[in-house]
């Protein structure tokens, strides 16, 4: 059992969720409330990672993270090591790759709030931030919960992108999914089986727990 | 502080009007749906910005498109009751009220809920309240900000008739606490006439006629927009007491009126809405008639419109009632201003929701 790989996967999933939570709140709300020219294009761009093969996506990430690209070069200058084949690069790729899983449910959650409630909040003297905190977040909560669960579970299971952008450096970019693949390649069916079962158990427990929690929140709200 | 509004806009609805509402005054914006009433209310609240407009209230300017002043809704001290009430579903009644306070104050929330007769339901969520109770929470929430202007957007349209009567009475009872300008949007003439001090009839975004309810009711042009069958006069009355047969005796300027289904303690001042098309005129005092309410009156004016109808203005003591009869009938009876006639009112023709307690500023029935 490769515990290091498991913890790396959990760490990656936790970082991805932590970064995407505020992003999905802001972007999801923006897309739900505003209408503007090119909104369809923005929504399509957000959804793009869902339809592209991880190899295509990973290829472009590799190009963007490389030392010859502006982003990669800037990173190298600021932190002294390259972005590809690093944990930070993996987090960045994971964040972008999970945009549809985070933003789409959050957007639906905000869209479900009647316009009159937002208007009532501002006519109650609430500033936009206060209205977001007191009225919109509690009501959009089920959508945000779904977004975070999907992101977490999807990151745990991600394989192609991790392989393309991260390689398989133990303790840095070798996640549990990669470790399982390594074990299978090495004909270690027992090792692969244990890790696969562990991943199934953790994923199932995470999703069950969050849905149970969100059901409780839902009861409190209604 | 007076609410002062002037609005000009081309889209989505052409608007061109101006009006003032004094503190403590309730003004009704009436007109058919699509006439722009709600848009006017939204412009006052800051939920919509017209092309050219000026709104001032509470001693400050909220919107002045020429001076580029446009306060967002949360910086306008406005209380609004939405047609759908728009209560926050995840908060209890008391939390909804407190949500509109700069600093949450539970005691003040309970006081406001008691004011709308909901003190024992303050811990219920909106889903656990009836439509009428939700409306009263919305009213309490609108007052929680101590608003400079209170806006009511068709607040009685989502409930059944019996509940509506109670809510009407609730607003009348609340009037003593409403010392800010109040604007009521409604398409219901009965509601406007019973609740409001003044009316502004809106038609396709323009103010057709503004003034006291009596003035608007006497205006043929305003009447065309509202529907001629809505024409009615308000007769001030005081409850005298119940009769043995179930009717209630009301004292009016010209003698008693007997009406069914009137609730209230003796001495209660009322407004009774007398529909013009329900009034029958007679030269001689009729005898052997099933209608029991016969009121002597003096004709002050005869106003004919485009159709075969004629509006007869009658002085009853120092109040005015209106009778809508045909021009043919008026000719046969040779009616002329100054004549004395008898107005016949059928007791059963006064609908229960056409009788309401008088607002506090009505002086005792004259």
From TrEMBL, chain A:
Molecular function GO labels: molybdate ion transmembrane transporter activity
A Pfam cross-reference name: BPD_transp_1
Presence of the UniProt keyword Transcription in the record: no
Gene3D superfamilies in the record: MetI-like
Record-annotated membrane-spanning stretches: 12-32, 44-63, 83-103, 139-165, 192-213
CDD domains: TM_PBP2
Keyword terms: Cell inner membrane, Cell membrane, Membrane, Molybdenum, Transmembrane, Transmembrane helix, Transport
InterPro entries to which the protein is assigned, alphabetical: MetI-like, MetI-like_sf, ModB_ABC
ABC transmembrane type-1 domain: residues covered: 6-213
Main subcellular location: membrane
One Gene Ontology cellular component: plasma membrane
The keyword Transmembrane is assigned to this record: yes
Cellular compartment(s): Cell inner membrane; Cell membrane
Membrane topology reported for the UniProt record: Multi-pass membrane protein
Annotated family: Belongs to the binding-protein-dependent transport system permease family. CysTW subfamily.
Cited function: Part of the binding-protein-dependent transport system for molybdenum; probably responsible for the translocation of the substrate across the membrane.
Protein name: Molybdenum transport system permease
Species the sequence originates in: Pseudotabrizicola alkalilacus
Gene from which this protein is expressed: modB
UniProtKB/TrEMBL annotation, chain B:
EC number: 3.6.3.29
Residue ranges occupied by any Mop domain in the UniProt entry: 288-354
Residues annotated as domain ABC transporter: 1-229
Statement: the UniProt record of this protein carries the keyword Methyltransferase: no
Domain of life of the source: Bacteria
Gene3D superfamilies from the UniProt entry: 2.40.50.100, P-loop containing nucleotide triphosphate hydrolases
Keyword set, alphabetical order: ATP-binding, Cell inner membrane, Cell membrane, Hydrolase, Membrane, Molybdenum, Nucleotide-binding, Transport
Any one Gene Ontology molecular-function term assigned to this protein's record: ATP binding
PROSITE patterns reported in the protein's UniProt record: ABC_TRANSPORTER_1 (PS00211), ABC_TRANSPORTER_2 (PS50893), MOP (PS51866)
InterPro entries on file: AAA+_ATPase (IPR003593), ABC_SmlMolc_Importer (IPR050093), ABC_transporter-like_ATP-bd (IPR003439), ABC_transporter-like_CS (IPR017871), Mo/tungstate-bd_C_term_dom (IPR008995), ModC_ABC_ATP-bd (IPR011868), Mop_domain (IPR004606), P-loop_NTPase (IPR027417)
GO cellular component assignments: membrane
SUPFAM superfamilies to which the protein is assigned, alphabetical: MOP-like (SSF50331), P-loop containing nucleoside triphosphate hydrolases (SSF52540)
EC class name: hydrolase
Matches recorded under PANTHER family: SPERMIDINE/PUTRESCINE IMPORT ATP-BINDING PROTEIN POTA, SPERMIDINE_PUTRESCINE IMPORT ATP-BINDING PROTEIN POTA
NCBIfam families, per the entry: modC_ABC (TIGR02142)
Name the record gives this protein: Molybdenum ABC transporter ATP-binding protein
Species in which this protein is naturally found: Pseudotabrizicola alkalilacus
The gene coding this protein: modC
